[in-house]
Design a protein that fits this description.
By secondary structure, the chain is an all-alpha fold. The chain has two helices and no strands. The protein has one domain. The protein starts with 30 loop residues before the first helix and ends with a helix.
């Protein structure tokens, strides 16, 4: 088998609190993204995990340290 399988698990880390910016303090998803996770296809989940969430985490970290 040459295809690589990757389970797309929820990014939830159990710190469930929507901050003033509308993002969860733990996983950096919006409330709508959290609610839609169960019905998202694997491609959408992978895009969120690989592109969207890391970018948000970086932006939030920079903002907390006065760099954004």
């Amino acid at each position: 088998m040459t295809d690589q399988y990757r389970a797309v698990l929820s990014p939830c880390i159990g710190i469930c609190n929507i901050d003033d910016d509308g993002l969860c303090a733990g996983c950096h998803r919006t409330g709508a993204e959290i609610a839609n996770w169960p019905v998202m296809n694997d491609n959408a989940r992978l895009r969120m995990m690989d592109e969207v969430l890391p970018q948000r985490e970086t932006q939030r970290g920079a903002a907390r340290h006065g760099k954004g």
